[in-house]
Amino acid sequence: MWVVECLSYPNWSKTGQGKDRVVILEDADGDGTFDKKTVFFDKGVNFSSVEYGFGGVFVTAIPSLVFIPDANGDDVPDGPAQVLIDGFDLTARHNVANSLTWGPDGWLYGCNGILSNSKIGKPGTPEEQRIPMNCGIWRFHPVRHEFEVVAHGTTNPWGLAFDERGEAFLTNCVIEHAFHVVPGARFKRMFGQDFNPRTFELMQTCADHIHWAGGTWEGSRNATGKHGEAGGGHAHSGAMIYLGDQFPAEYRNNLFTVNIHGQRLNRDKLERLPKGSGYVAKHMPDFAPSGDPWFRGVCVKQGPDGSIYISDWSDTGECHNYDDATIQRENGRIYKVTYMPELPLPRDFNVPTSSGELTQFIRRPNRYHSSLATRLIQERSARGELEKVESYFLKRFAIEAKNKDVRTLWAAHAAGSLTEEDYLMCLSNDDDTIRGWAVRLELEDKAASPEMLAKLADLAKSDPSPYVRLQLASGLQRLPLADRKEIARGLVSHAEDASDNNLVLMMWYGIEPLVAQGDDDVLPL
């Protein structure tokens, strides 16, 4: 288990010198508690999250995203931390970049907060060429080293997770706690103006409830009484969508987040709306009440064994406590929550060594295993070690007409095994998740051939699935302005979508630049 120990908070270092650590915890004897701790790196600056992959670890080290290499896997850095991008706001305190997590598409995702007025770019990028953002979701490609803002808005998102069909959900503070992250979305904000003054209307939460009893957010910090009954308070940290096979089926695809003042985990059931393109997050019974007044949970993750792991800062204050003298730095804890009786899982669960075996590993019911297989295949492809025959079978599984497992499509895409012709085939699949993701993945490079544009325009007119139409509306923002019109015409022809607020707003965000430039052709839209 790779863990960040943040000793910098609340006085972020501005000198480039620090003592934050990345440590490795190991349960050598398999008794459920760690008995070996290895300090991997101890000169960190403003560390807030960590993710493993590609021969090292990625760390949000404000104002940067850094990579610490360990190509031979000996748990000793091969060299100094490499700055991949910088520009995250160093003056923000608790609204900093956080929550690194691998997306199903091979990108590394993260969050950023409303006070973190950032301008992101590779080191040395001129300010006018940097990408501005504050609160929202961003992503970074580990091979191409590209940075993108995925969605703008909310308050201080400090958790991001992906469900069974690869849809992202963030957890948030002060305003509502859960948002369905459609790429290109512009969400409700705690305060301030969206970056685009012509947005006009912002997208709302997917939750049908809040975890506090209303009033001012400051007044909800008392987890007893009415606020405790509602869920514990406004402040949430961490996000996990359970996709393991140890807990009963009723927990699968549930969103878990730490309620900081409530000293517990909140649990929401994610359901697709019976009509429309969106989701609803329904309030379920709270999970794992700590009973500890010092409990200050930060992260919640699912492990390879299907257990749930929760990190705890363990302090009496919270994110607004800036008194350096009273902040606890040596009481941190990590809890493992297992559903009993525990399913046996060996400590080393035999990750396949060949890419062919990894292709089968992708189909495992435990999403931890399938996500690991996808990343390993992507890494091998990036190193040029993916054999042609393995790439062929990966492609074949992904594009066959009877395929209903979108995970094979993600893996083939991450490995770079698919062509535009392959995506065209996937757009004719009977499964709307496959079709929707084919739209999203095809437009990743922000270009499409005339044949592909014609197919997308046809789908916009004729596809019966609002989910696919949502992906098409989202994809408008990735296309050159001239290529958006026919797709937009098809999308707005669906009278049944008039009450689908997500779809309507995503259409507007896609065609607004055409209106702004005075294109008369789009006025009827």
State the helicity in percent bands.
10-25%
Rg, Å, rounded: 23 Å
Alpha plus pi helix count = 11
- Low-pLDDT ranges: none
Order the strands across the largest sheet as they lie in space. 8-9-12-13-17
The chain-level mean pLDDT equals: 92
What composes the largest sheet? 5 strands, mixed
Number of beta strands: 24
Shape: globular
**Broad structural category:** alpha+beta
- β-strand percent reads 25-35%
User: How far is the first residue's CA from the last residue's CA?
Assistant: 52 Å
How would you describe what is shown here?
By secondary structure, the chain is α+β, with helices and mostly antiparallel strands. Among the domains are: 208-349, no CATH class; 419-522, Leucine-rich Repeat Variant (Alpha Horseshoe). The chain is 22% helix and 26% strand. It has helices at 225-230, 355-361, 367-382, 388-399, 406-414, 420-426, 432-442, 450-462, 466-475, 485-492, 501-516, and strands at residues 2-5, 20-26, 36-44, 47-52, 56-61, 64-69, 82-86, 98-102, 108-112, 118-120, 131-133, 136-140, 147-154, 159-162, 168-171, 178-181, 186-189, 236-241, 254-259, 264-272, 279-287, 297-302, 308-312, 333-337. The strands form seven sheets. A five-stranded mixed sheet has the order 8-9-12-13-17, with no helix packed on it. It has a four-stranded antiparallel sheet with strand order 4-5-6-7, with no helix packed on it. A hairpin with a 6-residue loop joins strand 12 and strand 13. Helix 6 (420-426) runs antiparallel to helix 7 (432-442) and helix 9 packs parallel to helix 11. It is globular. The N and C termini lie far apart (52 Å). The relative contact order is 0.08. The model has no long low-confidence stretch (mean pLDDT 92).
